Amino acid sequence: MSVIYILITVSIIVAIVFFTLFIRAVKSGQYDDSYTPSVRMLFEDELVKEKTKNKQS
């Protein structure tokens, strides 16, 4: 039974570490993407054309 307590404690510690690293990455701006939304409309037509070509083949 004591092994379960150890495993639960270790898993909570690991979860807290991953959560703090995730929060640190978000605050540092690692997930900020200012380039892709501005050019997404330029590449969307090519994806639609490729899908229609694949359906016709």
TrEMBL record:
The chain crosses the membrane at residues 6-26. This is Cytochrome oxidase maturation protein Cbb3. NCBIfam families: ccoS (TIGR00847). The keyword Transmembrane applies. Keywords: Membrane, Transmembrane, Transmembrane helix. It comes from the Bacteria. Pfam families: FixS. The gene is ccoS.
